[in-house]
Structure formats: structure tokens, C-alpha cells
Write a structure and sequence with these properties.
By secondary structure, this protein is mainly alpha-helical. It has one domain. Helix content is about 45%, strand content about 5%. It contains three helices and two strands; from the N terminus they run ββααα. The chain has a two-stranded antiparallel ribbon with strand order 1-2. Helix 1 packs antiparallel against helix 2. The mean pLDDT is about 85.
Length: about 70
């Protein structure tokens, strides 16, 4: 999610409020595909369109955390 469109306050300059809560990353696992699945489900459950949610889910792989793991 573009940080400019983040509906909450994350306290991080790299992660949105959905990914970063209470000073740590919300997902502590190491499986990118699982994290992307959870993101997609959360976005669509929150009312985001499937196409837009799929695009933002694809962008997750470029976040600093996942970029280091590839």
C-alpha cells in the first residue's frame, strides 16, 4: 500500500499500518506467498477491489523485508 494512502499511523517510514503495529512487523513468518495471501484476503475483506488488491499484493515482494530475503 502506498504510505500516502495508509489509513492509520504505523510509526514506520517503510511500512504501512497493516504491516507494522506496536513497533514490530505484524507477520513474523518467512513465507512470502503466505504473507501475500493474507494481505490479499485482508484487503478484499476491507472492501478493496480484487484487481487493486492483487496489484498491491504483488508489490509486497519489493518491501524492504522481502527484498532482503530473495
Amino acid at each position: 500500500m502506498p504510505l500516502a494512502k495508509d489509513p492509520g499511523k504505523s510509526g514506520s517510514d517503510q511500512y504501512c499500518s497493516y504491516c507494522f503495529k506496536d513497533g514490530k512487523l505484524a507477520y513474523e513468518g518467512n513465507d512470502l506467498k503466505e504473507f501475500q495471501r493474507r494481505c490479499f484476503e485482508g484487503m478484499t475483506a476491507g472492501g478493496m477491489g480484487r484487481f487493486k488488491a492483487r496489484f498491491f499484493t504483488w508489490l509486497v515482494r519489493f518491501a524492504p523485508r522481502w527484498r532482503r530475503k530473495q
